[in-house]
Design goal:
single chain; mainly beta; seven-stranded mixed beta sheet; globular
Amino acid sequence: QLQLVESGGGLVQFGGSLRLSCAASGFTLDYYAIGWFRQAPGKEREGVSCISSSGGSTRYADSVKGRFTISRDNAKNTAYLQMNSLKPEDTAVYYCAAKFGRVGSTWWLIEEYDYWGQGTQVTVSS
C-alpha cells in the first residue's frame, strides 16, 4: 500500500521550532518530488515548499522564506521540513505530497501531486 505519513507536529510558542517528517512506505521516493502544504481553519490549502527528487532544487512560499528549510534523505525514504521562527500565522495542518518526476513553477498546485499524507497539526501560540 502506497502511503505517506507525516509526523513531528505539535504545540510550540512564538519563535520556536519544529521539524516535520514525511515518511513513505510502499514505494520509493527516489523519483518523486516532495511538496509540503498547509491548511489553516477556513482557508484553502497552500503550498509551503517543495524539493526535487535529487534534493538539488528547492522552492519556498514567500511567507516562509528564510524560516523554513526543506530537505530529504532518500536512503531513509523520508523528507523533512525544518520550521524556525514560527509565528501564530503558521498554525495549520501540514501535509506532505509526492509527485512523480519533476516540479516546476507550478509546484504549489495541489493537482500536481500524486500522493498525499494525512496531515499533522502545527499550533503556534503567541
